């Protein structure tokens, strides 16, 4: 619908809701002679009120809202149907907002009218490198080398953000829709060509989050290859206790070398926050175990604003930046190396006085009842910010400059050669036009930070990078999807076009049986 109507992706939510509304009133191939609407409400739906998507509409301005010589109507375009009332959703071109109204005059024969959108209050930032003149819209999920043949050209003028469909007031006092789109003009719709490919869909989920979960669902899988201890006692007494004990020792040793803690007595009136051990199995791209990781984290939710912390924000690299850099490496045939900062947060020095209780596994000598945090450990509200400030200060001191487009993209130019560095918390990607410059950059980083050099990047942020025979690279999250299916007991399920079981008989909420499943957790993944 969007492509046919020549609309920006900012109207995706409206188009999706309208498509659902229409589809629910069309006969279903699964149920003969019935529509989904009729199955639910036991009524035949009316289609007399339906209109053509994006057709011209004139919205009546109430008499009390207009002056004597003002026009009686405003020009807009039809967006969809309001579920809560017998009204339509329309885009008011002049006001640049979606309104709801019943007093509409439609012109379903006209589509060719201008759609002037207010411009952004910012300009697109560009990398200060002539050889990197690559637009975001040219970066697909599959990208090609300079010598490779591209399958299709990227569609111009397509925004990646979708405007959420929220509750709106009536047309007399419409809610304002966020104005963040560049000025563009829509032309008359025309039929899409057969060779036009669908836009790539990119899943921005990150599987680096802890995999502990509530075992409340009977469908939750108890897979040993995904099991990770929840508590300290589970780890040191479980089947893999040798691995976890070594991981705990390595974490405590690293903290001791970094000078993270200082033994102290808790001052009167001062509170001490708790700590917790988090255990994670880090896997390779093929799913095999790379290493067992134990991390001591603070229970930062007990911190108090303006006492234990102030500022907390810290940036992470944008996924569009990640795709852009991967595209650049394939286009210019540059290497892409991956490094990992060991216990990154422990490099940041605390500005506030924060005390924590003595963690499990730590033995203290002397008359001490708590630990003072000298360095920012994981879990503290300000930990990521302190680490980001420390890293930014260091890399800028060795000649890098943060991009105006993405503060986690660092650029360094030396004698006509450049190095690009991406940072996602403790994961660092380095690429560039000179192997010597890349090696020098990694050496400079290791003078200050303890890092593991994984060499060529094949797996980053839960995304597997697969080099294809035609010179392209594919970004794949197959393992992450399979892990989620196993986690919720759906790994043996049969694929279907719709998640709804058409044979299910809907009942009133009072008659429905209580189902104990981690629904919200699964949706948020």
From TrEMBL:
It holds the Pfam family RVT_2. Keywords: Hydrolase, Metal-binding. Residues 143-212 are annotated as: Disordered. One of its GO terms (molecular function) is hydrolase activity. Residues 193-208 have a biased composition (Acidic residues). Residues 260-500 form the Reverse transcriptase Ty1/copia-type domain. Residues 55-116 form the Retroviral polymerase SH3-like domain. InterPro entries: DNA/RNA_pol_sf, Retrotran_Ty1/copia-like, RVT_2, SH3_retrovirus. This is Reverse transcriptase Ty1/copia-type domain-containing protein. The lineage of its organism: Eukaryota, Sar, Stramenopiles, Oomycota, Peronosporomycetes.
């Amino acid at each position: 619908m969007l492509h046919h109507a020549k609309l920006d992706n900012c109207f995706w939510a409206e188009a999706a809701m309208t498509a659902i509304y229409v589809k629910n009133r069309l006969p279903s191939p699964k149920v003969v002679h019935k529509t989904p609407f009729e199955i639910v409400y036991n009524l035949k739906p009316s289609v007399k009120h339906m209109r053509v998507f994006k057709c011209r509409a004139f919205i009546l301005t109430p008499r009390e809202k207009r002056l004597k010589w003002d026009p009686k109507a405003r020009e807009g375009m039809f967006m969809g149907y309001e579920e809560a009332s017998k009204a339509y959703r329309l885009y008011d071109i002049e006001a640049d907002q979606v309104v709801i109204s019943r007093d509409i005059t439609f012109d379903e024969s006209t589509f060719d009218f201008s759609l002037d959108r207010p411009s952004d209050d910012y300009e697109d930032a560009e990398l200060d490198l002539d050889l990197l003149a690559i637009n975001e819209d040219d970066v697909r999920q599959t990208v090609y080398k300079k010598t490779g043949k591209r399958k299709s050209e990227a569609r111009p003028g397509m925004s990646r953000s979708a405007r959420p469909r929220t509750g709106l007031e009536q047309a007399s006092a419409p809610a304002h829709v966020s104005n963040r789109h560049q000025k563009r003009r829509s032309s008359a719709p025309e039929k899409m060509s057969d060779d036009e490919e669908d836009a790539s869909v990119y899943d921005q989920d990150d599987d680096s989050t802890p995999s502990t979960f509530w075992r409340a669902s009977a469908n939750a899988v108890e897979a040993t290859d995904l099991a990770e201890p929840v508590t300290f006692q589970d780890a040191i007494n479980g089947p893999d206790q040798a691995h976890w004990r070594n991981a705990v020792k390595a974490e405590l040793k690293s903290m001791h070398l970094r000078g993270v803690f200082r033994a102290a007595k808790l001052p009167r009136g001062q509170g001490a926050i708790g700590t917790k051990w988090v255990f994670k199995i880090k896997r390779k791209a093929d799913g095999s175990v790379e290493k067992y990781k134990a991390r001591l984290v603070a229970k930062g939710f007990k911190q108090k604003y303006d006492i234990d912390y102030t500022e907390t924000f810290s940036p992470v690299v944008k996924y569009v930046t990640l795709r852009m850099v991967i595209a650049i490496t394939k286009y210019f045939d540059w290497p892409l190396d991956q490094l990992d900062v060991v216990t990154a947060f422990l490099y940041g020095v605390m500005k506030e006085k924060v005390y924590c209780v003595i963690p499990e596994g730590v033995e203290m000598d002397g008359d001490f009842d708590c630990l003072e945090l000298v360095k920012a450990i994981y879990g503290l509200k300000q930990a990521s910010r302190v680490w980001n400030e420390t890293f930014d200060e260091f890399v800028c001191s060795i000649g890098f400059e943060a991009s105006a487009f993405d503060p986690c993209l660092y650029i360094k130019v030396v004698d006509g050669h450049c190095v690009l560095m991406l940072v996602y918390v403790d994961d660092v990607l380095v690429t560039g036009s000179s192997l010597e410059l890349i090696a020098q950059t990694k050496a400079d980083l290791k003078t200050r930070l303890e890092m593991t050099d994984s060499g060529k990047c094949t797996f980053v942020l839960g995304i597997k990078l697969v080099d294809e025979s035609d010179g392209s690279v594919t970004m794949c999250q197959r393992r992450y999807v399979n892990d989620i299916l196993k986690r919720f007991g759906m790994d043996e399920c049969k694929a279907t076009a719709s998640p709804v079981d058409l044979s299910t008989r809907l009942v009133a909420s009072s008659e429905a049986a209580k189902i104990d499943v981690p629904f919200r957790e699964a949706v948020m993944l």
